[in-house]
Amino acid sequence: MNKKLMTSSKNKALHGVCAGIAEFFGISPFIVRLIFIFTPGSLLIYILLALTLPENRALY
Questions:
Q1: Which one of 6, 20, 30, 46 has the lowest number of neighbouring Cβ atoms within 10 Å?
Q2: Could you tell me which residues come within 8 angstroms of residue 23 by beta carbon, excluding any fewer than 6 positions away?
Q3: If pLDDT is split at 50, 70 and 90, which confidence band does 1 have?
Q4: CB 11 within 8 A of CB 54
């Protein structure tokens, strides 16, 4: 299987970054959001990922 890290097009809170990471690793987006909230410096990482990750445009 060839998985790629992309933003989610079906589970977005802001830009779909956390949901895309969760889909990639097969975990809940809530867990990824908590990690981003409680990790120092994660806002910069989130912004960079939101600007650079492609959007998953697969039809569901």
A1: 30
A2: 8, 11, 29, 56
A3: low
A4: no
What tokens does 6 get?
A: 């992309």
First to last CA, the chain: 18
Per-residue pLDDT tens over the stretch 11-40: 888 899 999 999 999 999 999 999 999 999
Contacts for 2 with CB less than 8 Å, ≥ 6 apart: none
Could you tell me the two tokens for 11?
A: 């589970």
- The reported pTM is 0.85
Please name the residues in contact with 44: beta carbons below 8 A apart, sequence gap of 6 or more: none
User: In angstroms, rounded to a whole number, what is the distance separating the alpha carbons of residues 7 and 28?
Assistant: 14
